[in-house]
Each structure stands twice: as C-alpha cells, then as structure tokens.
Fold this protein.
Amino acid sequence: MQKIKSMNSEVISKELALLNQAKLTKQDIKSALFNLIIYTTDSKKDHSFEENLQKIQSQFPCRIIFLQEYRRSDDFIEVNVSCENSPLCISQISINFSGKEIDQVPYLLLPHLIPDLPIYLLWRQPPEENSIILSTLKPLATRVIFDFFPSDCFHLFAKELLRFKAAGIEMVDMNWIKIFGWRQIFARAFDTQERIDLLEKTSSLLITYHSSDDGCFKKIACSFYLQAWIAVCLKWKAVEIKKEKKNFIIIYEKEQRKILVTISPMQQSKFLDGEIVKLELKSYDEYECIFLRQSTTQLEVKACDPYQCSLPFHMNLPSLQSGKSFIQEVFYEKISEHYFSLLHLISQIEQLKEGH
Amino acid sequence: MNLASPSFINPLIESNKPSKTADSCVMVIFGATGDLTARKLLPAIYNLAKEGLLPAHFACVGFARRKKSHEEFRKEVKQAIDEFSRSKPIDQELWQRFSQQIFYHQSEFDHDEGYESLGQLLQKLDQQFGTKGNRVFYLSIQPSYFPLVAEKLSLHQLIEKPEPGQEKWSRVIIEKPFGRDLESAEKLQAKLLKFLDESQIYRIDHYLGKESVQNLLVFRFSNPIFEAIWNHHFIDNVQITVSEEIGIGSRGNFWEEAGLLRDIMQNHVMQLLTLVAMEPPISLKATSIRDEKVKVLDCIRPIAENLLESQVVRGQYSAGYIQGNPVKSYREEDNVDPHSNIETFAAMKLFIDNWRWANVPFYIRAGKRLPKRATKIVITFKKAPGYLFQEASQLSSNVLVIRIQPDEGISLKINCKVPALNTAIQPVKMDFHYGSYFGSTPPEAYERLLCDCMAGDNTLFARDDEVLASWKVFTPILHYWNAHPRRKCLPYTSGSWGPEAANELLTKDGRSWRLV
C-alpha cells in the first residue's frame, strides 16, 4: 500500500499509474471487469468477509475502492493505493476517514471509477442509514450488494430492502447468496413430485448454526433466510415468532397444519460464525431427513420413514468450493424472485405476535 | 429439465432463473478402460462432483471387456483423475465418498448375459443411490458397435423410448464420427431409431462444449455493431483454421479408416462454420439454434466435380520438425500402410448460397503436424475506399479474429495514424484475452456436455439432420477421392502450413491465409 500525502484526485491517479507501471511485467495484461466499492466501518471486518474478498481478488481483475469509516470523534482522512498483478490486475484505492471528512469522500472517489464498466457497491451497514456516501453512489451503482443483517426488527430491514427494489435499484444480499449452496442442495435432494410431497407434510424444521459465543441473533442471518426460503417455496404462512433463550422460533401454518421452525446455535469451531451446520426436517408422516455438514465442503444426507431408512449419501456444497459459483451469484445472476418473496414474508412479521 | 415428465414443477427452483440441474441418474460408460474415458470423461465427472454440480443421487458404472473388480477400476479412476484433472491435487475427502459411487461391470458388447447382469446392477444402484431408473449410456467405443449396443440395451429394457407421463428417462451419448459418409450415417441413424427416439440421442462434439465456441453466439447476437456488418456487404472472406502440432500418435488404425475430413472437418470445422454463418435463432432453445445451423448447411453450395481439384486440397505430412524436434512422416507411423493415401490435411473453399453470404468465400483448413496448435476464425472485412489515403498504398483490411483455442479471445485489427508530420498509416490490434479477465481454467468441454445431458439439454449436441447435412457437403469429396486413388495426397513437411496448393487456393483469388 502506498500512502498518498495529498488528498488530490490527480495525485491519487498518478500514484496508481506509477505503481501499475512498476508492477506490470511484460507478460501481464492490464484489464478490469468492474469497479467494486466497499463501504465498511472499523468494527465490521470478519473472516467471512475477508474470504469473500479474496475470492473476488483471485478471480476477477477489477478496481476496488475501500471506504473505511472509523467511528471516532476527530476528523481525519487518509488515502492509500496499491496494485497487484499476480495473477490478475487488481488496482486498489483505500480511503480511511472519520468525522466530517465523510463529506469529501464521494468526490474523492468519483474520478477513479473506471468508465463503461459495472459499478458494484458492497454496503456493510444498514440500508436505511442516511449516508451521503450511499445517497451519492446509489444512482451510479449497477448493483448494490448488502452485507448486513440486523439482530432484531427484521421486518423493518426487509421493508427497506423492498424500497430499493421499488426504486428500481438492482440489489443482492450477501447472506442470501451465502446460502446458495444450501438452496441448491435442498432442491436437488427434493427433486421429484414424490419427494416434494414428503416436504409438504413437514411438521418441524430445526436449523443449527455455529456460534463462537453464547449466541447472538445477528449471526442467524443464513439460518433465518434458509428457513424463510423453504417457507416461501412451500407457501407456508408465518403465524408466530419468538425468542426462547438462545433459540429463535417461528411457527408457520399450511392447510391448518402447524410447522414449528427452530433456529438454534451450537459450537462447531471448524465452521465460520453463522454458518449452517445441520438441518433436520420431520413430517407428520414420521418422515425424517437430516442434512449434516461434515466439513466446509461436505454434507451428509440421511432420510428415514417409519418403514425404512435409505442409505446416507453425500453432497458437495457448491458455493464453498472454488468460489466461482458464489461470485457468479453476486455479480452476474439475475436477481432472485424467491428472495423478494422472502423479503415480503419477513416484512409481514411485525403483524405477528413477537414474543421475547 | 426432464422432458419425460414436463408436468412436474419443482417449487424449490425459480421459474425466472432456469438452472441447469442435472437429474438423478446412473451413468454407464461403455469403453471404460479406453483413453477418452481416462483423459476426459472421468476427470470431468470428478470435477462436476467437486463443483457440486453432480446430481445428489448419482452413480457411475464403467462397462468394458477386461476383467477387473470395482476396487481395481476405482484405483484406475483415481490415477486418471490424478493425471488428467484440471483441478489438482485430488481432494481426498471428496474422493473417499465419490469413489463409493463408482462401479465396474465386465462384459463383451455382444453378450446378452452381460446386459442382463448390468440390468441387475443398475436396479441395485437405483435402490442404493435413489437414481430413479434414469440412465445415461456413454458409448465411448468404436462406432461400428453403436447399433449393436443400442439393440442390446433395448432388448434388455435398459433403454426405453420416452412416452407421455413416463418419469424415468434414458439417454445415449455417441462419440463422433457418426457414420463414414452420408449413406452410412443414414443407415446408422435408421438403426438407432429402431431402439431410440431422436430426443434420446446425444451426438457429442466436444468443440461445442468449449466456452469460446459458446461465446460465438453471445458475441454475434449481443453486440449489434458486429451483427450489422456481418454480411456480404462488408465481409470479404471468412477463414477457419483448425491446426494441430501433434501427429496421429497411436491412432494409426483409426486414422487409416477415417482420415482428417471425417475426424475434424465434417464435425468440428462445420460446427464453427455454422455458428459463424447462421441467422439469429428465434430463441436460445435447442430446436431454434439447431434449425438455424441446419439452414446454413443446406445452403452450402455443392462443389461441382470439375471444381474438386481446384477448390479442395488434401495433403499428408511427411517427415519434418515440430518445435525443433524431428518427427516422422505419416506413412512411418504405427499401424499405417506405408503407401497410404489418407489425408492428414485438407483445405477448401466453400460458398453459402443465401442472402447474407452471397459470394463470400469461406476458406477452411485443418491439419495434423502443422506449426502450432490453434483454432481460429478470421473475418476479413472489405477495405475502405482508398481515395482518401492514396499515399498509404498498403491500407489494411479490418480483421476480426476469434481465437477458439488456445489463448481464447477476440482481436480486431484497425488502421491508425502513425504520429508524424505525414499521414502514414499503421494497423494496430485491439485484443481481448479470456484469461486476463476470467482466469485461465474454464470448465472442460466435457464437464459442460455431461452436465447438459444429465439435465436433458441437447442444445450443444448435434441433431440428426445437422449431421446428415454436413455429410452431404463432404460425401461427394470422399467419393471423388475414392474414385481417383491415383491422385495422391500432396505431401507437406511436418511443421509447415500444409501443401503449397493450400496457399494457391487463396492467392489465385488475390488473398492469403492469415498467419495463425
């Protein structure tokens, strides 16, 4: 990282060009697929985020502009530039700031966006935040990628995201994409009418996720989305939502039958915080199906009915392998209609009895 | 996409995001101990497993004549993956469970009891893996066995023609060449149709599984600036080159039977030509794309017999040097007749008689033991009227080059002023390299094609009328060569760009092959 002494756009460009020249060997070809602006705050760095960023950097040549806001009392701003050409060309501008300096950040970064290429804005704060950065960049962004999940008031969060959709802003949600592999595997395991019929009679669903501490509802994002996705696909109607100690419980209804969904934390240190470890499904016909993570990539599926148990089979979680399909989902795939249905379902949760 | 049961809509799959989901099945590979299986098929299946793209309910059975146990076969599979897979090293954890989905079945191709016991094994696997009676049979065997194997599979009810309401499906993947000429291809098709429906036959041409080939459609039909000039008003000529450094290797027996026209020209080159020349399909559905390709093939002007000598060149490599190393001639290769007249090089000029391509020559060439491995499509545009830059006597044509392999990408040559006080003009190149943007390890063609077959998508497989139309173009040439055995293949030195006659094919038209 090269520290820039003057907060002048021209100086930043020059430094970046110099670095580029110095690092570029004769064989390297400079190319860029898109601009990626990442907004985060000092408390928001986590392993999963770093991992995803590495996936992007290792597979896509691009310009990354990091905006890191520090929540402290003084006013400060600092710019660093870097350029990597191995194996792909990644030019990076990092703007760290706090206090009133936020006002000049959008104007500092605008000249450095590469024209004619998509602009992705990765936003790691609540969408409703009244930020000059979000309001300036939102109209320019090809797609806004949210990487945030609230610890409560899910319905407000969902409503805010739906407002983005209504305003015609293309957006995706990292937590939704993180369960891409689970969604794929679940759909593949229930891929016939006969198997869907089994699902239709679900009586309970237990989703267990890894939590390194005693459980914080902020980490339930993936589990919450997964159960809500199943509910949307099977047309379950939410009737009650409550928190019981560390567990999160949602009661759905379909054709006068109740479905009890429990989201529960557990310690499984080989996984990242919030990652789903197990999904257990039971039906009124005493059919049982368990999806159990055995490693970061492997999953075992066991199914039994009152008469027989089928042999367990194994599956690979698609998104966690090369990361290629994960990135495809973030940048290229059509925005999911299932996701919006899920947001609608969550946005209606306020009408339910919320117990604590 | 399960064509046999269109009524089932999985609520877990989004209707606005058609995902290519491979359906539960057992894949049976005939010729499981062969080279293609080891080099391409098994690594492809492993990589699909690694990417999580195999169906949840899946098993693979190797069918071959040699005796061996499941364990011995698994050991060979592991070796093949170790050596030939694009993703290395092998993932031990994945292998542990993947290997348990692989089985071996020994039988001669014509032994009924072998098919009987295969049926029993498949039923057992259905119960064990939940594969629902769905089957993919990959015939990686000599083409002469295709009808026999299809007949035996049908006789033992391992394949069934699709019927309305039928949930289980069976599909057969057939390797090229499909027939030796038009007549034999028609006969083969008639034989297969006794046991299979056309929708069950997947004629594989691995070129269609290549990313760069699939990009041809995207490039042509998502960039209107090119589509607007993609016709005889602007294009002077089209060149397609498929060149290989390697000789025939250990495939002497096969090559003596086939030759280059059957092995490369009739399939790979024609696939590229149709994708370059076709009209926009009405949709991206298999039928629409294949319909347009067939129309192009039907429009290719037959080469009159009196023009075959001047419009078609055939050659055979003699000894020479490849990358500085001496290599032997074709006739010195193993299992090759020392007096063989089989072609290892062919070049020809074709015309497509339709509105778009009126009088635009398509020069196509393919060969073994050429200076380098490369597949390229070169579109040369007509020159600008020269009166503005008369001093610049060598005003270049715009040239669009589509590199299929290696170094996949697209370049465009344009003219540019040299910075100076005069008006000197210099051609420069704008170049797009796939690798620079998207990394250098795209999925192997076989991964895509196997996945498509399991998903019931036959867009990237050749349809019967497509193959027959292609044979219609080449059969008269083959017949002419057979009828005139004394007209020998022109020898060319290994490491050169083929016989001089191939250059003359263009020079007499005032053109030249673009350097590959």
Confidence is low (pLDDT under 50) at residues 1-5 of chain B. The longest helix of chain B spans residues 464-483. The first strand of chain B starts at residue 25 and ends at 30.
